[in-house]
From TrEMBL:
Domain FAD/NAD(P)-binding positions: 4-297
Name of the protein in its database record: Thioredoxin reductase
Catalytic class of the enzyme: oxidoreductase
Lineage: superkingdom: Bacteria
One Pfam family cited in the UniProt record for this chain: Pyr_redox_2
Keyword Protein biosynthesis applies: no
Cofactor(s) needed for function: FAD
Organism: Helicobacter turcicus
Cofactor binding summary note: Binds 1 FAD per subunit.
Subunit structure: Homodimer.
Amino acid sequence: MLELAIIGGGPAGLSAGLYATRGGLKDVVMFERGMPGGQITSSSEMENYPGVAEVKSGFDFMMPWQEQCFRFGLKHEMAEVVRVKKIGNHFGILLSDGKEVESKSVIIATGGSPKKSGVKGEDVFWGKGVSSCATCDGFFYKNKEVAILGGGDTAIEEAIYLAKICSKVTIIHRRNEFRASPVTVERAKQESKIEFLTPYGIDEILGDSSGVTGLQLKNLENGSEKKLDIACLFVLIGYKVNNAVLMQEDGHSLCALSEYGEALVNLKMETNISGLFVAGDLRVDASKQVVCAAADGATAALGAIEYIEHHK
Ligand code: FAD
Ligand code: NAP
């Protein structure tokens, strides 16, 4: 039986692996369905990790993380986990090939992904002027005109954030009413750099070899068309957490979840199930940044070490 199973090999899972193995846990396996690294490996530029002054691609940035973990004994099994379940006082990890592995403790760090809009050009320019993260990429568009797609709290709050960096922020939303709280919408309306375009949809994201140059828009009420020159489109239309491994055969979650499907944890990354920890973007109130996910992973590993020590 494993002492610790880590599900997911992004920044949270890898940091958990480093701290758990270096902290003395034996038989620690990280189950990651692909190459370790997580979401950030799809980013072309990563420049906000404290202490790393050089701007690197997400892939290059994450490469040393796994090497460092493997040096301390972390094992990587390239496998998709279907479900984590409780068996008495330990856990069963069911893999997609039907194999089941048992472990005394588990850290789930399966992350999540921003929702995509499916608009023409989105995939072509993803990471080259189409972004899902204002905190990550806003600075690259300092003093430039940008647009946001979406009308929820994330879209409006990030518009207010971007207005402090960019020269103009246009919020494009498909309805005249906003899902975001009225107070937040009112705050955005007070910002001179923010403009609202409603009810508008994006027909196409325009660009060239240098990246995004503009948007072809349509008024959804009268069908009139409009072109908007911008350097970046932030698609902020919701986020999907990868909580499938928590779902049991009877449809219930192994641990308590928020109304958005995020795992409820305390400051030690403990769930309401003893021995089960959740770290990174999957947990409630996650800041959805690499540095935060890494810190969560380390915290969860320290908790797992303590748990194993007390359950010998
Ligand atoms: P993830 O990185 O999502 O990793 C989860 C891992 O779990 C994945 O590798 C996945 O394959 C694996 N997994 C999921 N389900 C299973 C399963 N059932 N079985 C096995 N494995 C599974 N943050 C910054 O700090 N700075 C930035 O500049 C920045 N830029 C970004 C740019 C982009 C395009 C994106 C998408 C995100 C960016 N972020 C950035 C956010 C950052 O990437 C995330 O906050 C961080 O990766 C979350 O780490 P995590 O370990 O919680 O989850
Ligand atoms: P959200 O509330 O689900 O809003 C998504 C927005 O994107 C909606 O306005 C939706 O339009 C639009 N949208 C969805 N799919 C689209 C598509 N394909 N094309 C164009 N537009 C599309 O998501 P969120 O803003 O990420 O927020 C998620 C949850 O977190 C919400 O409950 C929110 O209140 C909460 N949150 C809270 C805070 C806070 O309290 N400070 C901050 C951030 C988020 P429609 O409205 O027309 O459906």
